[in-house]
């Protein structure tokens, strides 16, 4: 059986169930063969509802980026003005890094429908299924010393949070340093990778993953407790082009403000959106565990944590988790 025959049949009955029996008869194939092909279609981004009793129903076809649509919606001067769109990459970070080495200008944007080895912080993998989310990397060339690079991570989190909250009206907050959460569940991840020469940053690759249109079933069961998507949280599919355009505008505006006025305005915005402040937490740092209450964001991008004895320490890098009671 060719996959296109099965797809043709499902499309012809869009929105309705087609019984396994009927598919089997029409295409002259076994139930097992059908089930296998259905899985292949799902891997390609088709959403198909399966019912033991009723058969299969086509819910949606894969979403594809439209560069025309994206360019029409962009309102920025530089961010996203040169776009490199790929069907499939290992990681948009690698592609952007190569472009940066070749001299691509600030604002160059790499997006992919799918990443085969998307990476997250702390050496973790980042799931990036085809057509379901925004998997992107932006080249930045800030003229700041290396030790200020963490400020850009927080700036990116603020810009993303503001743009998504505006677009969806969902209650989105920032967990230090840069996870965006809805009701405690993660909807996006930010990974900044910088290349420096002496104490000067040559370029920064800002990688952002946004879970836009993933359904619960797109996540492995063990992740479902911890993650969500804009679609799951709002009940609606969103245009990925609209998400990127809104984010680029907010991001460029905040970056311009940062270059003119420094980090202070970003700190104020970050603190207002934070869900991590003034709540006891356990921070697992490379140097060990710290139990305390985060109270403020420091100018450097570190978080100030009040310990039980009243002392305040600065934490630069950690995983923030629930307090141990
Ligand atoms: C995290 O929360 O751990 C950060 C995840 C960052 C994922 C994005 S998706 C686009 C870009 N390419 C990657 O390989 N990673 C980042």
Automatic annotation (TrEMBL):
Q: What class of enzyme is it?
A: ligase
Q: Which family does it belong to?
A: Belongs to the biotin--protein ligase family.
* Portion annotated as DNA-binding: 20-39
Swiss-Prot/TrEMBL catalytic activity: biotin + L-lysyl-[protein] + ATP = N(6)-biotinyl-L-lysyl-[protein] + AMP + diphosphate + H(+)
Taken from the record, one Pfam family name reads BPL_LplA_LipB
Give the EC number(s) under which this enzyme is classified.
Answer: 6.3.4.15
Function field: Acts both as a biotin--[acetyl-CoA-carboxylase] ligase and a repressor.
What's in the GO CC field?
cytoplasm
Q: What is this protein's name?
A: Bifunctional ligase/repressor BirA
Entry-linked PANTHER family:
BIOTIN PROTEIN LIGASE, BIOTIN--PROTEIN LIGASE
What residues does biotin bind to?
A: 115, 119-121, 186
Alphabetized UniProt keyword annotations: ATP-binding, Biotin, DNA-binding, Ligase, Nucleotide-binding, Repressor, Transcription, Transcription regulation
Q: Which GO terms describe its molecular function?
A: ATP binding; biotin--[biotin carboxyl-carrier protein] ligase activity; DNA binding; transferase activity
Q: Domain of life here?
A: Bacteria
Instruction: Describe the location of the BPL/LPL catalytic domain by residue ranges.
Output: 68-259
GO annotation terms (biological process): protein lipoylation; regulation of DNA-templated transcription
Listed CDD domains: BPL
Q: Where is the signal peptide?
A: none
């Amino acid at each position: 059986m060719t996959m296109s025959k099965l797809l043709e049949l499902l499309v012809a009955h869009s929105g309705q169930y087609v019984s396994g029996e009927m598919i089997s008869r029409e295409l002259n194939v076994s139930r097992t063969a059908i089930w296998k092909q259905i899985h292949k279609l799902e891997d390609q981004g088709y959403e198909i509802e399966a019912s033991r009793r009723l058969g299969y129903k086509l819910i949606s076809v894969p979403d594809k980026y439209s560069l025309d649509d994206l360019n029409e919606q962009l309102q920025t001067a530089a961010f996203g003005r040169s776009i490199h769109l790929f069907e499939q990459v290992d990681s948009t970070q690698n592609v952007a890094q190569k472009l940066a080495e070749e001299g691509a200008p600030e604002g160059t944007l790499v997006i992919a429908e799918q990443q085969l080895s998307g990476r997250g912080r702390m050496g973790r993998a980042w799931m990036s299924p085809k057509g379901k989310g925004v998997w992107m990397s932006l080249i930045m060339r800030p003229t700041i010393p290396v030790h200020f690079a963490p400020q850009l991570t927080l700036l990116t989190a603020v810009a993303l949070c503001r743009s998504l909250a505006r677009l969806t009206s969902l209650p989105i907050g920032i967990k230090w340093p840069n996870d965006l959460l809805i009701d405690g569940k993660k909807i996006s991840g930010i990974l900044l990778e910088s290349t420096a020469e002496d104490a000067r940053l040559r370029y920064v690759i800002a990688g952002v993953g946004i879970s836009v249109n993933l359904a619960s079933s797109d996540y492995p069961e063990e992740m479902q407790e911890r993650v969500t998507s804009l679609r799951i949280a709002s009940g609606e599919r969103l245009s990925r082009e609209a998400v990127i355009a809104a984010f680029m505008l907010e991001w460029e505006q905040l970056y311009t403000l940062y270059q003119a006025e420094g980090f202070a305005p970003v700190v104020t915005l970050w603190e207002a959106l934070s869900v991590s402040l003034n709540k006891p937490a356990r921070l697992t740092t490379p140097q060990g565990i710290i139990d305390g209450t985060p109270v403020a964001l420091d100018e450097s991008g570190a978080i100030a944590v009040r310990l039980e004895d009243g002392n305040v320490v600065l934490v630069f890098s950690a995983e923030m988790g629930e307090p141990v009671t």
